[in-house]
Amino acid sequence: MKKVAFYTLGCKLNYSETSTIARQFEQKGYQKVDFTETPDIFIINTCSVTENADKKCKKIVKEARAISPNAYVAIIGCYAQLKPKEISEIEGVDAVLGAAEKFRLIELLDGFVRPPQAQVFASNIEQATNFHHSFSYGDRTRTFLKVQDGCNYNCSFCTIPLARGESRSDTLENILAKAKEVAQTGEVKEIVLTGVNTGDYGIINGKRVHRFIDLIRALDEVEGIERFRISSIEPNLLTDEIIAFVAQSKKFVPHFHIPLQSGNNKILRLMYRRYQKELYADRIRQIKTLMPHCCIGVDVIVGFPSETNEDFLETYNFLNELDISYLHVFTYSERANTDALKIKEIVPHKVRNERSKMLHILSDKKRRFFYEQNIGKIATVLFENDVENGRMHGFTQNYIRVSAKYDPLLINEIKTVLLTNIDTNGFMEVEEVVESNFPNRIISNSFTVA
Ligand code: SF4
Known about the structure:
Radius of gyration: 22 Å
Bound molecules: iron/sulfur cluster
Strand content: 15-25%
Distance between the termini: 56 Å
């Protein structure tokens, strides 16, 4: 039995796809092993957004070769689609597969016999029109279920449309069937809906067939899954209808991750984003009016070309005033074949780094404030399979990271807890509570003061 190991860089979508490809291997009789267990085959799933994608890819290939010098090494993922030739020239690589080919890996590589020279199977991205359903299973306490792929937005800084192609989705029927399949394992408590532009869900064969709200309404009825989480949603697609639905949903948790990218309208225009800061602020207000306890994460890019100090400070102040819970800060970096390269006023790297630091500090402040607002409230926590210095972790519905004394019986369990205080690492400490002691309180998506 040949042994195969996987390494995944990047986003939840990549994790769901790696997991699906791993199941294909297992169905064909291969044994899935850890990276260090001298595999016969390595599959490395790359990311184009990751900083220094090329260096990371080279490093992983080198490590793979050191572990199993004669193993077969195949590279897939966004970076493989964008730079197939460059990757094929990395020493130790045997094959590179693009977006349209990665799910046919076993068939295309036929027996995994090392070729004298790396083989490249990467068609133009226009050929990547099929939707391959994927979900992660068995690696984590949560399952990432892919509902949508590709993007038609073409933001001026982003290579994802070039790496993943046009927006396309799975059918509602297929997604429901997959969610039920996951539920029937009896092991998964939470499903995270994953896509490139998740809120654009519903385009099938180039035509809009469904809307995102149809999808979440249908999933809310799936039995056997306790929580659904939306990985990320563009502000212009986050409608009042979606917010109102989540606010009253039994299973969709009060947590949104909404890319902002800049709090300055000139920069938003240059980024080809489809909204202005006023719309974003309105979305946050709407969410917080219906769900005061909702966690809101924000993506933001610093150092986009032509971003002046004043522009950045406008973003900083905008974020500072918004009722949000944390930031994911990205430092702008130049990407081949993107329109942002045409803007000549480059922001020096030193300035980009300084802005990034300022926003990281702001993010810590926001997170702490959000956690403090939740002390004394009752929540449910899904505990994860991790242990560090005798402690384990989990997340509440509204994405507060909880720390508790390690107990293997808690892994993958949902417990009702009282949020007590923030520890020195910034995690929430909790005490378990018995629901029957709180007979008048509804403990679901809503939170009540203890
Ligand atoms: S919405 Fe913009 S940033 Fe997001 S994947 Fe699409 S093109 Fe990239």
